[in-house]
Amino acid sequence: MSDTQAEQQRFCQLIRHTVRAKISILVLLLVVLFVIWSALSSGEQRAQEVDVKFCLQVIQDPYYYRGGLGEESCKAYDAKVTIETARHSHDNDPPPPTTATPEQLRKQVDDFLDHFKQFKDYDWNRRQAYGIRLSLPYIQGPVPLNAALMSLLWPFCALLALAAVVALKFKQTCYEIHLSTLLSNMKSGENDRSFALTEFLAGQMTEIIPRQEPRVFLYKKPIGLFPEAVVSGGLFVGAVFLSLNLLTDYVPQFNQHGDDDSSFAIYYACLYLFFVGLCFLLSRTRHFWRDSVSATIGGEIKGARLYSLHEIFFGNLDYSFAKVFAVTGLASLFLRWDDYRGFSLLCCATKVVDDGPWVATIVQLVMFLLVLFLLAPLLSTLPPGVWRGKLHTFTRRILGYGAPVILIYSGFIVFYHWITMYGQFKDFYLWPIFTGFNDVPNYFTTDDLPFGFRLFALSLFVVAFVEIYLRAKRKRDQLRRTKD
Fold it and tell me: Residues 226-232: what's their mean pLDDT?
């Protein structure tokens, strides 16, 4: 056996091992998802029984409902609403009168503590409804777990597992490129037979312009129904879809504390930052593997189909595109963001923000920096007499330092809004198509973001993305000229 054939067999083994690893991770992911879904479904039934039992106790207590309520208010998901209404029924009670006797004050405090303890017991019983016990090998007794806590941690675990699958896909592509390069160096007859012996795992390698420097190769796999791709792709889509359903159906229920959306935002901010960190690591990993392949082959490797799309969408991308969105973002300040217009956060934030003067000052400062970031691309259109070197350096620093931060900030708004829209679309439109009715309560209920604010966030996102992309492109071109 020649060295080339031995290398081909070795790369084929590496590709098969990578495919098996991807499928194994995805199957394990789906098995754990099934366990969590089963535990949450059974826990939801037990939790409803706890709700109904406590609701029947609450509606008979004159401390909450002096007029009394019928048992219809404690059916299905109405029991949860009745209980939460009773929980906050005395939040706005006035203080006791000064003429109250010590006995009256003591009775009022005792009543409050007794009912406070009732709700503490109710919360504890409801959390215990989602408890499960797993029997694991080499462990004598069952291991107690809480499905509600698992549902909060699961999106992070799912993202990590899916990121590992994507990284394995990068590695598989690098192996396929090496294998395709070996086959492209063979004669016609040997190439066809070797291609069959490699189980058709390789793709097609073509050079864009032969003998140009630096050399650029396009890699393309044929379009077909390949079992490995179908299995791994189907498992990947299933894991993503079920994880999204878990994220929108159950996570907000266990994460919400109070009537506002602050707990939603904090939890999804952590999830989003974790996602951004994984994307950064995946990007670094992909560049590392692709650079090692390029150094071995003697040219830069690009995907044939993505290269065509890249030329269509990013071939003529320049700062004029960023200027259009900068003007759009500034214009969105004159649209309504809520019961006020966006520019109100710049001129009179204290009249809009009700959380205190120092919070209003911080909001005003942030808005000033965001508006300054949108103004930076427009300053390049000033006449040459006004466009001085110091002003140019100042605006370039604003764009350079601010683009990564603003891209992450505006990306979170887009991510949070997209998750909200997905949860509402699934609950109100997708499930009724397949089941005829919606038997899952829409826990993910957040108010839709105003159009003006969404337009402002989208403009920031596009301007920051264009700045980062063009800056990276300039660095690549400079590095290429240095190598030449």
Answer: 82
- Say how far apart CA 265 and CA 194 lie, in whole Å: 55
- Helices 3-59, 227-249: axis angle to 10 degrees equals 20
Q: What is the pLDDT of residues 377-434, one digit of tens each?
A: 887 666 655 555 666 677 777 777 888 888 888 888 878 777 777 777 777 776 666 6
Q: Residue 207 to residues 184, 217, 326: CA-CA distances in angstroms?
A: 11, 4, 39
pLDDT tens digits along 136-152: 666 666 666 777 777 78
How many angstroms separate the CA atoms of 104 and 146, rounded? 42
Q: In the block, which residue shows the tokens 């973001």?
A: 449
If phi > 0 it is left, if psi is from -120 to 50 it is alpha, else beta; for residue 378 that is alpha
Structural tokens at position 449: 């973001």
Contacts of 296 (CB under 8 A, 6+ apart): 178
Q: How confident is the model at residue 257, as a pLDDT?
A: 40
Instruction: Enter the pTM of the model.
Output: 0.75
Summarised one tens digit per residue, pLDDT across range 246-286 is 777 776 555 544 344 556 677 788 888 899 899 999 988 88
The three-state DSSP-derived secondary structure of the chain is CCHHHHHHHHHHHHHHHHHHHHHHHHHHHHHHHHHHHHHHHHHHHHHHHHHHHHHHHHHCCCCCCCCCCCHHHHCCCHHHHHHHHHHCCCCCCCCCCCCCCHHHHHHHHHHHHHHHHHHHHHHHHHHHCCEEEECCCCCCCCEEEEHHHHHHHHHHHHHHHHHHHHHHHHHHHHHHHHHHHHHHCCCHHHHHHHHHHCCCCCCEEEECCCCCCCCEEEEECCCCCCHHHHHHHHHHHHHHHHHHHHHHHCHHHHHCCCCCCHHHHHHHHHHHHHHHHHHHHHHHHHHHHHHHHHHHHCCEEEEHHHHHHHHHHHCCCCHHHHHHHHHHHHHHHHCECCCCECCHHHHCHHHCCCCCHHHHHHHHHHHHHHHHHHHHHHHHHCCCCCCCHHHHHHHHHHHHHHHHHHHHHHHHHHHHHHHHHHHHHHHHHHHHHHHCCCCCCCCCCCCCCCHHHHHHHHHHHHHHHHHHHHHHHHHHHHHHHHHC
Contact 427, 77 (CB under 8 A): no
Q: Distance between CA atoms of 59 and 80, rounded to whole angstroms? A: 12
Strands 300-303 and 131-134: unpaired
Q: Phi and psi dihedrals of 132, rounded to 5?
A: -135, 160
**Of 66-80, 192-206, 269-283, the least confident:** 192-206
